[in-house]
Batch of 4 targets.
Target 1
Amino acid sequence: MSYPIIDGHCDTIRLFELNKKDYSFTKKNNAGHIDLPRLQAGGVKLQVFALYIEEEFKPVGSLKRALMLLDLLRKNLEPCCKEITFIYSRADLEKLVCSNKIGALISIEGGEALEGEVAVLRMFFRLGVRGLGLTWNQENQLATGVGNGVGGRGLTRLGRRVIKEMNRLGMLVDLAHINEKGYFDALETSSKPVIVSHANSRALCPHERNLSDDQLKALAAAGGVIGLSFCPDFVDQKRATIQRLLDHFVHVADVAGVDHLGFGSDFDGIEDVIPGLEDASALPGLVEGLSRRGFDAHEIDKITSKNFLRVFADNLPA
């Protein structure tokens, strides 16, 4: 049995720039982990593409960089208009489910791109952006990232304003990379369910980017979803395997419930891969692993797509 897959996070946009002479999204490449043929082979129905703002563009130049990345994404996906459709609304989601196309949803990774202005958020919305990760690993004008260590400030007043405006507009709040205080502040502030696009369980792998059981329970109580990452460092400190990644799926399901679990590969944002999960075409093998670990067909359907679909529909404009 095949399942449509939603992947909550990839950094493929950087390949459009780094390999612009050799990389074409329309054909299978040796570079990176994602292109159109590999998305099709992997059964991906919707891919969230993140505009990652590199550190050299922080704090000055983030807005310009985000706009340049947005242009790169559109330019490289335009030749795939018969196979890929951009997702802006609930109506688009409904059409996607009944079509043979792959959906593309645009998100920004790092609130620096707003350069302190809620008005910029509204303009990004008008340009088709439908998600925002409040932080990367550093501190910015909205919140503090996990890279600043334990403690630190949580959500700022501007961060609260941004979340409320995102709720009003119809944008996904992404809490990957935010520190623990900011995480709970954001859950308290958002009137809509949030996502954690790419992270794993801290109980199984004590990486700063992973979530504690208390964070997972709070996410579930708020109706949110975590996309489990394939980054080896988030899976195991010694040896990351598909079986160890499946341990994370089982643990999060036990702690937060199957309704709050999804895929968040972080493909093209990771240098190393888990053996057997080399690129997007290998996703059916992970789905088979879920079945072997005791998840039934209804539960796998939720994990692969239905959970993210629910939260996307709760957030996106009509």
Note: Residues 5-315 form a domain with the TIM Barrel fold (CATH 3.20.20.140).
Target 2
Amino acid sequence: MKDRKHAEFKPTWILLANASKAACLASVDGKTHLQPLAEFDDPLGRAKGRELGDDRSGYESMGPGRGSASYTPRTDAKTKEHDSFARQLANHLNDAIAAHRCDALAIFASNPFLGEIKSHLSEQSMKALRAAIATDLTSFDAREIERRVDHALRPLS
């Protein structure tokens, strides 16, 4: 039987995100001090829809002899950009879980961006997800982030 003192503990990875920036942190052995792992920035996430070149909606012909025209709904470029950034962040977490670089995940993200990230998590990452909290902590300093993360995750320990 292994002594708990000598057992290898893998960190919990904590993602702080909104639709335009994110940070991935690690909490080793449940300690309050969080270690920065990676930062992500998506300046297009802050852009206006018209700056991103929204797709136009309208009728499309089905081609000669193929029946009537069909209506394709408008695709919002800002939504596409947010989805792309959410997928990038989820892939980062999915890769970490698959490579056994961490044992657990916690996500603190603005709403509804939290749901977008979760929709791209793998089944394995969803099983490792210990907390998903709809709040944006990206603008706080390190001390305040640690305080809020500790408070949010404490009941889970």
Note: Residues 6 and 29 are 12 Å apart (CA to CA).
Target 3
Amino acid sequence: MSIEFYYALDTGRARSNNEDSVAVDEAHGLAVLADGMGGYNAGEVASQMATSFISAEMGRWLELAAEKATDAELRRAFDICVDNANHAIFDAANSNPQYAGMGTTLVLAHVRGSELRVGHIGDSRAYRWRDNALSQITRDHSLLQEQIDAGLITPEQAAYSANKNLVTRAVGVEDHVQLETHLHDLHPGDVVLMCSDGLTDMLPDAVLARLLQAHDALPAIGQAMIAAANEAGGKDNISLILIRMAGSGSGSSRPWWKFGR
């Protein structure tokens, strides 16, 4: 089953630099997106370290493993690559004063046949568009999500919360971080959207769904989403990756870190 990729980044309307980073390895069906945090240019450093390190290391592993790897082995490779990237960012942050406190969210995906393996840390997300319906397939690691899960606030109230950027997991902030991974099925015509919160903070899911329905080509979808996020305020950097399967569809007590975004 063939796969189509598209990715785009935009600084938005409120920032002069871009702390988001993406990497796509079409040959191995791999996509990585990160949204960095930290003072000066540290957020950019963290996100670029994460995407370049993980895409390079996973790409090498996939080249050797090819189609023979089991799903358990693929999941283990995800964990090892992310753990190595986490240590690299953590060590850099603790050995260079200008990088102190830097870290990044992360969402990565690998497509093999009709299977999609997704891993994520923080509040960068992945969605699946199928049969004119949009489903979020990651769950934010954030204080806000924990408040929703505990029934302290409603999803509607969350849209206006001041705690949007408080994440409970981030790459490079501590010497260990847990990657959450899930396996999903893909049908011909499905579209996977991976994005930073610069998109989702500006556009509710209903608007994302309308844009997916209104456009067919992946570049048109991506450009329409970025334009809409900027029109809604563009308060943060915006990054996204779109992946489509060929064919037609069938009609707390834990710590948190404030992202300086």
Note: The domain at 3-258 is CATH 3.60.40.10 (Phosphatase 2c; domain 1).
Target 4
Amino acid sequence: MRRFIASESAGGIVLALAASFALVLSNSALAPLYERFVQMRVELRFGNDWLVLSKPWLLWVNDLWMAVFFFLVGLEIKREVLAGELASLKQAALPAVAALGGMVVPALIYIALNHADAVALRGWAIPTATDIAFALAVLMLLGSRVPASLKIFLTAVAIIDDLGAIVVIAAFYTAQLSLPMLLAAGGGIGLLFVLNRTGMKSIGPYAVVGLIVWVCVLKSGIHATLAGVATAMAIPLNGDERDHHRAAESEGHGASPLETAEHALHPWVAFAVLPMFAFVNAGVSLQGVSIGTLAQGIPLGIALGLVAGKAIGVFGAAWLLVRFAGARLPAGASARQFFGVCVLCGIGFTMSLFIGGLAFTGQGAAYETQVKLGVLCGSLLAGLLGTALLLSGRPAPTH
């Protein structure tokens, strides 16, 4: 957990720099160069044009690079559920309920502000996301002022949040489906689990089959990043998956295939995949933007959902569990510190931009600008307010 948090927090700083650089470029004399880079056409051909993949660089990053990110997310979810902070109902209850509240309330706020606009309603899921890299980066910069238990709580909430985002993308942001490609993807996923059941420990075969599944999912109409999650679920937590990870370690088996893949991918995702995603997606021209622009339904719904909705949803759901089900706040944390972390959950940057891109595909640049403004303003404000609360809060008294 310490290694994971350290990697995510450092990556969050790089992510912030990449997003800031994109914002500066898109509002400078270099804006046309930035736009040409983002829209640069990249083409791959296989076997005498048997398969041709031709996309702008923006879509290669959002479809393929982010599939690697979702693969890592899938690995993290599987490990935490089988052998980590979510391995028991008692451990998982507080972050799970908090994460659910943190998805429902922001969505309701967005819907309330955009209920009269059918196109705008497509973005209801944008403010439901939490960016674990950014949020953990803020916590790590605060150092010992924040109890370790709050960092673990935030990590668990964000992981469950990512699982919710995966379900939302699969259920609500899917285009017309191709049955043959779906069947082919299903066959590939079946083969992945055959590899698992036969005890395959090498990551190579999983990666090859996973790439084939990615192509099939890309052509099926379901968003291609979900292939990364499906592949991750097949990676064994230990040699044969008949024992839990702790038992494998006690027998001296060392790192599992899942851990090996997770540790190998973390630096690439933290310092390449997510910064590149931020760079190609965060660029937005502020020319002509005013207070009136921010007050429109989409950016206002996103920003309020991230700042107020996340804080109310996460804290409110957790409070109900503490009040009526006997749950306890994270050890060593005061109520104000806990609320500060709940506010930090409103930093939705990466996943919010990603869902926003899916929600308004083909709707034009105006919608894209509104989404980016809402996400950037909401995430920045949530980060600042959460930091202020954490700096002003005192640790819970010890007995």
Note: The chain has 16 helices and two strands.
